Amino acid sequence: MDNFYWLDRISSNQHLQVGDRAFHLSRLRQKGYPVISGFVLSARWFREFLETIEWSDPLFFDLAHSSLRLNVEDARQLQAISQQIRQTILLTPLPIEWTIELEATVQALHSVTDEPTQAVILRPSLALASSKPRELTTSLHSEAADLLEAQVCWSDQISLESGLKQLWAEMFRARNLIYWQRSNIALHQIHLAVLVQPIGVAIASGYLQNTQIDWEILATWGLEPAIANGEVLPDLYRLNLDNGTVSSQMGSKTIAYHIGSSSNEKADSQTGEGVRPLQLDSLSELQDQQFVLEADQLQQFVQLARRLTADFGSRLLLEWALYRTDQNPPRLYLTQIKAQSDDGLMAQSIESALINLDDSLNQGFGTPIVSGLAAASGRTIAQASVITNLQHLPIDLKPGTILVTSVIMPDWLPLLKQAAGVIAEQGGMTSHGAIIARELGIPAVVGAMQATQRIKTGDSLLIDGSDGKVYKATAALKREFANQQTAETLLNQTAAMEIKTPIATQLMVNLSQSDRLDHAASLAVDGVGLLRSELMVMEILDQQHPQLWLQTGRRDKLIDRLSTQISKFARAFAPRPVFYRSLDLRSHEFRGLEGGDVPFETNPMLGVRGTFSYVLNPALFEAELAALSQVYQTGYSNVRLVLPFVRTVEEFIFCRQRVEQAGLTHHPDFQLWIMAEVPSVLFLLPEYVQAGVQGIAIGTSDLTQLLLGVDRDQGLMALTFDEHHPAVLRAIAQLIETAHKLGIPCSICGLAPVQYPSLIDSLVQWGVTAISVNLDAVESTYYALNQAEQKRLGRLQR
Q: Are 526 and 675 found together in one domain?
């Protein structure tokens, strides 16, 4: 039985196996429309794959043919079931013969440049069983077809397998399970096929839509996700088919997506992940102020629209791309079609078709003002406070406002504690601003370009930190938002899980703020895996740099304050361990503090920081050690010391000697660890252990930054800063395995396990001792750890 159907050969009796959109796209291609080449992976594969999975829960044994009726009002159950199904799909390997067949078919795919296909897009194509849609109508409503997100991947076996399973897992997102059930659609009624199309060098892309009056084109530079994500305001063109004239309205196009050139560095054989094909470029002011489409290209659209009008009476929304080829001029392709539903409901308008699906189902929030990285989850509505002068911060910030700025610095902690949310033009997922927002539990969007220009103080905003978007909060939106609070709680605020099954891998939390202690200590976790001292001291030193306390003769007071604060964490978690990471004061991040005016560095991320700063000036480090000694003297022996950003064994030996002089090594429970984040530790870990290192904590943020040469604070580098990159994963595996051989514990405390839950299976297999995550990720991480350990136990028993 065939598993693959080529677009130019699909027949009418194959509709259910290829889904609505692929079926209609094939009709267009067979009618001679400029549809890009492609093939469809049969819906049969998805069902057969679900049947091959060894489900640990009997509830899912018959998933491929079941209705899976759930209580969608029970947030805990819904999230747990959704996570369990999706995680199992991602961790179950495809049969090897499937991956071989899939890769061979992709290589037979005719690319847009007649060269071997380097990257493809996997698009979902759904159909409802027992339906017979008429010409260019769909068996499911158009919004249902948008529930599943397309996946872009390289064309090798491992990348294709990973992308395919990611797409299949989309079927079981919590929001999707709610949609199927409330629409009275049983899972076994849905046929999920996958349309596979090549991606080349796109000059431009966008949408073509016929309205009640005329045809409209939206266009941007590069690939279409820039429009779908709301990251650009596309050019708008209105076509008059009677006389062939076009009216144009220029948008704002500051970035563009394209396929990168790193296809030779694809997926890692151990993890199934690799460098992502989609890369983000910033555009010049000249390109921003230039119309995307030229006159002859617009006439191609006029001719295409006339033909579509003559051939079809339906309302249509088509995606298109203008690809660079060996031919001249570039070639226009249609890449996707969205048509009306079989029930007579028309396709969405061009604006609502571009809104993220969460908006369609749960929000109806409209088009975002700005978009960026979803740095801290949650949604809220509040007025904006825009800060443009970073040298003069407002001291009277109105509590409960949304802070809008170009960059967030660690010394802004008092401001952030008053804020209802934060929007920053710069910064990445691992920047201090993102870290602080996640710990404080306020929504944050970072890397939101032009936010300070598009938003004014006093504007009423809705910030969506779960999706990385910011909306203008109109009166209608406020009413909609108020009506959706129950759904928001259901989908985005998971209740704390009562951990019933013990797990072997320690689950710990990252902390810095004492006002989160009661909640953190109440969780079933094994301790604090990372106590961030830099953010902790912001709470206790009156907005003054710690060096100023030393310079003004207040060393004893500094030691007292440090010991008092550290003791709070030790007391709350005793007897569970608290791993205190000593100060890593990067020069550019604390310049706003009184006494923080230190010399400028060309690249502070690689400057005087970590243990090297202790060697140059040990006074502050010695004060920290004195504070730790006081903590032990008061009876709290559960605090461990972790040294940050250790470059050399000699730096460690210097610090160890200071630790010994402070008397800390006399306490039997004391341990001295290092952060494993400078790549040199990969080669020198045996020497570190010989010198006295008792454990390592892998910091994936700095490790990724140094291995890939990417500044993790730059939002534009977000797609390049990949903590799941094969080089990073191999480094993590080597560190864990080497630590195991040397007989020392190894924890991991970066963002990678939270962003990529499938990585946890590998971490457990490699033998990681502990995983430390932010408070909001404790429950999901426990679940992933439990699943990974069960799988590992199953392998060992075989």
A: yes
